[in-house]
């Protein structure tokens, strides 16, 4: 498929989202077609960073480059 047919914003990657909760929530709402909310925040034992557990079933954390990433554990 040609990239000419991709709507603006559809190719936005998680790592390209601004490093704040409002931007993450907005991105996830676009991805899932509806609101996604934060269920809890915990500290990752290995990375010592906040992990935001979301209603989509995934955890999200800002990495060393201040980019969002999915945490699977």
> Which residues sit in consecutive blocks of at least 5 with pLDDT less than 50?
1-6
What is the CA-atom radius of gyration, in angstroms?
Answer: 13 Å
Strand order of the largest sheet: 1-2-3-4
Q: Percent range for helical residues? A: 10-25%
Structural class: alpha+beta
The residue-averaged pLDDT reads: 88
Secondary-structure element order, N to C: HEEEE
Number of helices: 1
* Beta-strand fraction estimate: 25-35%
N- and C-termini, Cα separation: 35 Å
Silhouette: globular
Count of beta strands: 4
Largest sheet: 4 strands, antiparallel
Compact summary:
The chain is of the alpha+beta class. The protein is 16% helix and 26% strand. The protein has a domain of 36 residues.
Structure description:
- This protein is an alpha+beta fold and 73 residues long.
- It has a domain at 38-73.
- The protein has one helix and four strands; from the N terminus they run H-E-E-E-E.
- The protein has one helix spanning 21-32, and strands at residues 38-43, 50-54, 59-62, 68-71.
- It has a four-stranded antiparallel beta sheet, with no helix packed on it.
- Mean pLDDT is 88; it is low at 1-6.
């Amino acid at each position: 498929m040609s990239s000419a047919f991709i709507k603006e914003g559809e190719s936005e990657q998680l790592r390209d989202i601004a490093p704040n909760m409002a931007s993450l929530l907005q991105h996830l709402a676009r991805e899932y077609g509806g609101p996604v909310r934060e269920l809890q925040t915990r500290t990752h034992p290995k990375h010592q960073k906040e992990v935001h557990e979301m209603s989509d079933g995934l955890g999200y954390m800002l990495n060393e480059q201040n980019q969002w990433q999915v945490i699977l554990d």
